Amino acid sequence: MAFISPVSGVGLINPEQHGSHPKGYSSSFHFSCIKFGDSKRYTKNSRCSSMVVRAGVSNPDIDYSDPNWKQQYQEEFEKRFGLPHLNDLFDINPIPTTFALKCRGSDEMEPGERKNGYVNDDDRTLLKVIKFASPNSAGAECIDPDCSWVEQWIHRAGPRKKIYYEPGTVKAGIVTCGGLCPGLNDVIRQIVFTLDVYGVKNIVGIPFGYRGFFDKSLSEIPLSRQVVQNINLAGGSLLGVSRGSATTGEIVDSIQARRIDMLFILGGNGTHAGANAIHEECRKRKLKVSIVCVPKTIDNDILLMDKTFGFDTAVEEAQRAINSAYIEAHSAYHGIGLVKLMGRSSGFIAMHASLSSGQIDVCLIPEVPFNLEGPYGVLQHLEQLIQKKGSAVVCVAEGAGQNLLETSNATDASGNIVLGDIGVHIQQKIKTHFKGIGVHADVKYIDPTYMIRAIRANASDAILCTVLGQNAVHGAFAGFSGITVGLCNTHYVYLPIPEVITSPRCVNPNSRMWHRCLTSTGQPDFL
């Protein structure tokens, strides 16, 4: 296992403690929602004081009538959002970074030529920037009943001047889990590129998700800049994907046997939960291994993140399906186009695709209940649209309206409840309804699920993947573990994994974005 030799007097902490990254602080100043610090080192006996909470979630243990409740709340922030660090378990002397910001030319540079592109350990960025004046404000996310403003600072991502690994002896592994998502190859490519710049030569891919750790028939895939040079030109994953896994112990046994020092895990909520368990098991065994995640979910349902990679591409591709449905519906006599999009518990793709296309009359998402039948139901509204416009287009997320279907206890390989097919159900209901009232309806049903997730990332997602992949490597070399990298309030940050896996991120029915969608579609409440 490659690592900088620790200094004498190894200090141990309780490996069950989250948010235990000790840091020293000095003066700082604020600019453009980023907090820059000028301290240059870690100290062992102090903690960082800048933390974040999930806005909108109250702490029942805090007395908000206490004038000092904010201080108590900030202390809770500190416990929750401190980044686990290898120095929590080992006294390690960092070394100057090998990540060169100037790669060519003379080694001797004038002071004016030196590029100040490194991130200070105490840099922070704000998670939220809106100060809500009232809990009744649209989309309000309040901590206390009065919606008081509390600064929520999280760790800024990026390269540090000091690193905690000797790059020449590091073995790094990359694994992609879950389903396909546009941009997987882009992230893999940038992780390999950045490791190469640091000087890491031993880079391997673990094939087919967590399965690659325990399936004896699967071998590591050697990776290099040459191997991954053009993989971003295609969709899918160079390493393959799969759902389900072995036990945490088996995976960590494999990590030990392979002598992996850094493991980069690309996946969604379930994969992150597994990664956190791997991180905790590594700490329990006192292994000097950095576990760093990159959120991968086409549904955009990771907590605290502005968006996840693949989402923009999914929305763009979903528009093509919506455009086809519109043309089919508009060209037919009493045509109704029905498009089912991805979104098990979150309707972000359906909402954004409906907004961006401008052709949707009805948008149905999991977060907003609706009725199909009755005087205020979807079917009655479609009947009115056919009378007024002669056609209609419906967009439905796959997880919407599950209460209208027969329940099932079946689960997939990842442990998710198998959803009923709401698209087919609505298609049949539309046909039955219009036949029952003696009105012709030509229903065209489109399900572009696999077309959307298997394509190459668009330009926006490619840039996001590039920065996420690079920052994942920077986080590992900075000595962090049990973290994920993401985009929060337009800035790239590191977050402790437990804070993003408590529940899926969902569309807020009181948010301005959902209200914009309703304004665009003109649909009523279907209740």
UniProtKB/TrEMBL annotation:
- Which of this chain's residues are annotated to bind ATP? G179, R243, G244, G268, N269, G270, T271
Q: Which residues cross the membrane?
A: none
Q: Which GO terms describe its molecular function?
A: 6-phosphofructokinase activity; ATP binding; metal ion binding
- Record's catalysed reaction(s): beta-D-fructose 6-phosphate + ATP = beta-D-fructose 1,6-bisphosphate + ADP + H(+)
Keyword Transmembrane helix set for record:
no
Required co-factor(s) are:
Mg(2+)
Q: Which residues form the active site?
A: D299 (proton acceptor)
The pathway this protein participates in, as annotated, is: Carbohydrate degradation; glycolysis; D-glyceraldehyde 3-phosphate and glycerone phosphate from D-glucose: step 3/4
Q: Which residues form a coiled coil?
A: none
Residues the entry annotates as binding substrate: T297, I298, D299, M342, G343, R344, E398, Y450, M451, I452, R453
Question: Which positions fall inside the Phosphofructokinase domain?
Answer: 172-474
Annotated site residues (Important for substrate specificity) in this chain: G270
Q: Does the keyword Magnesium apply?
A: yes
The processes (GO biological process) annotated in the record are:
fructose 6-phosphate metabolic process
**Binding of Mg(2+), residues:** N269
Coarsely, its chief localization is cytoplasm
- Explain the purpose of this protein: Catalyzes the phosphorylation of D-fructose 6-phosphate to fructose 1,6-bisphosphate by ATP, the first committing step of glycolysis.
According to the record's subunit comment, the protein's assembly and interactions are: Homotetramer.
Record-given protein name: ATP-dependent 6-phosphofructokinase
- Annotated source species: Thalictrum thalictroides (Rue-anemone)
